[in-house]
Amino acid sequence: MKTINELVHEAHSNAVSKGRWEEHRTFGELIALMHSELSEALEDFRNNEPITINWYEKKEDGRVRTEVIQIDDTWKPCGIPSELADVVIRVFDACGRYGIDLEEAIQEKMAYNATRPQRHGGKKI
User: Fold this and answer.
1) Where on the tree of life does the source sit, at the highest rank (predicted)?
2) In 3D, which of 57, 51, 48 has the Cα closest to residue 80?
3) What percent of the chain is helix, strand and coil (3-state, nearest 5)?
4) How far apart are CA 53 and CA 125, in angstroms?
5) Predicted TM-score (pTM) of this structure
6) Pairs from 53-61 (Cβ < 8 Å, separation ≥ 24)
7) Model pLDDT for residues 26-60, shown as the tens digit of each residue
8) Where are the beta strands (DSSP E) in 1-125?
């Protein structure tokens, strides 16, 4: 299994190779892109899509076909798991762009969170 930082490098390298960094993007734009992926997951939830299951789409002859299994790599994964993966990929790409050691940051934050009291902050949701 790859480390988080290896995945960060891979996600950012793929984004660079696909031209996603040919124009400058602000940090705010990157956050908005992450947020848009979360919004897509919420939209799938609102449409009563199953939380744990992807479906697959492919455009052919101007029409969109859907299947419950991925026939080959040309079929696009859709659904809540896929949208959540997109969120993480966007985060990885941003971390790769800015040189953020995400693996260390996660470990440090999880260690801190373990010390917090139950339901800290008193917020309802």
Assistant:
1) Bacteria
2) 51
3) 55, 10, 35
4) 25
5) 0.88
6) 53/79, 53/81, 54/78, 54/79, 54/81, 54/82, 55/79
7) 999 999 999 999 999 999 999 999 999 999 999 98
8) 55-60, 63-67, 76-78
